[in-house]
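testing teh design pipeline on a random one, pls ignore if ur not involved
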């Protein structure tokens, strides 16, 4: 399968999962959840969804997303016209918080 097709499918999956996560009603999912990165296996069987959560607990959000993965996968299947909907694995990513912390430290150093 050509690489550009997987890249296009990865972008579509990221966009759709970001939209689907807004409708998930799990109480463990609090704050702003954003999909940072999505990787799809070459055979399209598995997808790793890296997410960040601002204003919530990453571990609790990961548990909530894992339990809602069936719903997310079903919604993804109905939105995308692909033969096989990949299995979803949600992985917490705190890169946004780390970059905000580093930016704050740089600003503090510049002000002193």
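output:
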């Amino acid at each position: 399968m050509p690489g550009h097709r997987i890249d296009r499918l990865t972008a579509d999956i990221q966009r759709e999962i970001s939209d689907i996560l807004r409708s998930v009603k799990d109480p463990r999912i609090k704050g702003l959840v954003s999909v940072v990165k999505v990787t799809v296996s070459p055979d399209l069987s598995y997808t790793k969804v890296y997410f960040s959560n601002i204003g919530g607990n990453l571990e609790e959000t990961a548990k909530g997303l894992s339990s809602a993965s069936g719903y997310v996968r079903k919604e993804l299947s109905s939105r995308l016209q692909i033969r096989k909907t990949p299995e979803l694995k949600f992985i917490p990513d705190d890169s946004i918080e780390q970059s905000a912390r580093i930016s704050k430290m740089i600003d503090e150093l510049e002000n002193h």
